[in-house]
């Protein structure tokens, strides 16, 4: 029995960096102590106040169908948050609640790309980007960014690939690089999007993990609200990765289209989880700051730990729960560095190659263990790099 | 800004029977007492034992990512249930846990249909079927069934539309008709599927709501396990509509494909909901019987209430939480009958036309209010039909 052709093209392009993740998991299962710095998940669990609100909602009978774009009170709360943070007027009609940010990402591409169209995304990229575009039947085309410019997207590189494209997917603060796009970058991106009549799909799920300044959403730039779809989520901001609650922000016509699509794909999300989301948002900015603070602290710690290394260079990091380290001076690829690091030191990091081509010769370090464990792991990682034979 | 072409083709073909539902909801919001027999949702809420298990799991820290095809213990429990009920050996590797039956339906079509392919489904149909097929980029083609044969699918009708088709979607026990496909029907369907090399997608979410005999899954027929994908859910069997927990059963290669697809669409479902699902299944057959018993009782009640009507004929009903009533003797369409019934009696039912063409001149009655309220509504409905002027 034959499967659809799209099945063969559903997974990503990156070399199989997940090898390291699986190998680390297997070692752990066999009782070997491994420091796992691969996955972008907090070292805390969801706050009990949020879980209590969820349990109370479920016990109160909110266990039936919830169809459409989300519960009105939650849509309103998200709209208010987006208005306040992004500085652009957003009403409940601009908000679709989705079962996680990934579902919003998929829905955004499903309503803007037809089979055969081209969808652009920036390399390095989060693992699901190419597959998400391909799942719609569209062609995925990567726009390379460069270590030399701190992995900021460049207008020329986008424009060179924009013929026939209908969407451009960007991500700031960025996974895997930790890069925060500058206003200049976002203005360039906006100009190219307008010139080539592209939908801009802006993944902003790390918008609370910002180490300096304020989050700038490209939707707030002049004329961009009508062509920008913003993906948001409570996963990273509120340590609710498993609860699958996110949203898509966009013009009302787009929200109508993704609502119709959801009827055919997921059919709403649990009312009690929506109530948990409302409770989470009601905890306010101080709570969000408390959830993100450890990553800021650990970013600073990584800067300090690696400052004196001759072999390792930290990519300037402005946000997100990762740092990216340039290991090219060791003469090893990111893959090989990660493999040997796991073998020698039992420290698991993600090879840059698993995020595309642009971050080859780098590794991504998730800042997701406690400060002492991270400091020790980074010291060992730096010593490991120093101890490698000279390149070439 | 232009949306994808698929957006215009995402919703169904049925005439807008949801008008009645929305009108009833508006009346209710304005304080008018309406008996709502439109929606297939229990008049009970999810059992507290299931919700307690969910809350306990969440509080125990199961709030992180759960990727892949589902938690091993839940996949095992579902596999055991399917093996026991369908009588066909099913292992955890044949099970993908999905955020609801609709997500399983969508995934099944996404991995078997490419843009431009044809997907078949039987008319009358559950509202999302055509849109689900269209969302994949495929063409949806309805196979009509007939009131004269109790809406059982007929091999000739399927075969006549099978050229170029890759999938056939069936649903037994059936929404909206209440029809349970006979062994003969399913053998015919299986033969046509094999002859035309079709994937058979079998929606069996009402498999516990069966008023006589045992549920027959076409996957259990000789040679069919390799080409049948079964959609299941806890929504109807365990009154968990809002929790969005379902599954797809199929060959391991298909489960691998839908797992890869899920990475790009929904990215797993909450671990604590999976634990709630496991708790629900552990309540056993007696619990499932208790959840379905009211619908059997009310089906019998509907048979009794409408037996003496000259104008109304009940479609022989073998299962599901609905009965279908033939109103053609009144000279009214299903749409017009439902509109006038709502106006005159404040009783809301779904016009047959909202489920396609084949059930024109019928209305669907959801058995989802308590027995006394249902009996009274049916008596008023019958009297209303008798009081209509003679047809023609």
From TrEMBL, chains A, B:
Signal peptide (residue range): none
Protein name, UniProt field: Aminotransferase
Family: Belongs to the class-I pyridoxal-phosphate-dependent aminotransferase family.
Catalytic activity: L-aspartate + 2-oxoglutarate = oxaloacetate + L-glutamate
GO molecular function, one term: transaminase activity
Annotated Pfam families: Aminotran_1_2
Coiled coil: none
CDD domains per UniProt: AAT_like
Superkingdom: Bacteria
Required cofactor(s): pyridoxal 5'-phosphate
Gene3D superfamilies in the record: Type I PLP-dependent aspartate aminotransferase-like (Major domain)
Domain Aminotransferase class I/classII large, residue spans: 34-381
PANTHER family cross-referenced by the UniProt entry: ASPARTATE AMINOTRANSFERASE
Source organism (scientific name): Albidovulum sediminis
InterPro entries in the record: Aminotransferase_I/II_large (IPR004839), AspAT/PAT-like (IPR050596), NHTrfase_class1_PyrdxlP-BS (IPR004838), PyrdxlP-dep_Trfase (IPR015424), PyrdxlP-dep_Trfase_major (IPR015421)
EC identifiers of the protein: 2.6.1.-
Keywords from the UniProt entry: Aminotransferase, Pyridoxal phosphate, Transferase
Top EC category: transferase
């Amino acid at each position: 029995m034959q499967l659809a052709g799209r099945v063969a093209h559903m997974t990503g392009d990156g070399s199989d960096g997940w090898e390291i993740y699986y190998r680390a998991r297997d070692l752990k299962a066999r009782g070997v102590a491994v420091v796992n710095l691969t996955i972008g998940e907090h070292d805390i669990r969801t706050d009990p106040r949020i879980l209590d609100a969820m349990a109370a909602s479920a016990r109160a009978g909110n266990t039936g169908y919830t169809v459409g774009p989300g519960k009105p009170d939650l849509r309103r709360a998200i709209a208010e948050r987006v208005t306040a943070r992004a500085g652009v007027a957003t009403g409940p009609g601009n908000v679709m609640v989705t079962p996680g940010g990934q579902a919003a990402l998929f829905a955004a591409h499903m309503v803007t790309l037809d089979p055969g169209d081209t969808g652009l995304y920036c390399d390095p990229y989060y693992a699901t980007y190419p597959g998400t575009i391909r799942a719609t039947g569209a062609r995925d085309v990567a726009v390379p960014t460069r270590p030399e410019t701190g992995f900021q997207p460049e207008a020329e590189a986008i424009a060179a690939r924009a013929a026939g494209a209908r969407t451009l997917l960007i991500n700031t603060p960025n996974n895997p690089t930790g890069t925060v796009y500058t206003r200049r970058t976002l203005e360039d991106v906006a100009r190219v999007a307008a010139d080539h009549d592209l939908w801009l799909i802006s993944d902003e799920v790390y918008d609370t993990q910002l180490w300096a300044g304020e989050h700038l959403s490209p939707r707030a730039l002049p004329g961009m609200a009508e062509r920008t779809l913003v993906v948001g989520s409570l996963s990273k901001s509120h340590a609710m990765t498993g609860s699958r609650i996110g949203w898509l922000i966009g013009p009302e016509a787009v929200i109508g289209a993704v609502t119709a699509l959801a009827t055919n794909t997921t059919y709403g999300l649990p009312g009690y989880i929506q109530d948990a989301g409302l409770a989470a948002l009601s905890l306010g900015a101080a709570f969000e700051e408390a959830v993100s603070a450890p990553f800021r602290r650990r970013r600073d710690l990584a800067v300090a730990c690696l400052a004196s290394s001759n072999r390792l260079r930290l990519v300037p990091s402005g946000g997100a729960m990762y740092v990216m380290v340039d290991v090219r001076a060791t003469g090893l690829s990111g893959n090989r560095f990660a493999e040997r690091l796991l073998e020698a030191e039992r420290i698991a990091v993600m090879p840059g190659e698993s995020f595309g081509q642009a971050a080859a010769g780098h590794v991504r370090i998730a800042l997701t263990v406690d400060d002492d464990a991270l400091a020790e792991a980074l010291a060992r990682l730096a010593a490991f790099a120093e101890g490698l034979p000279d390149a070439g």
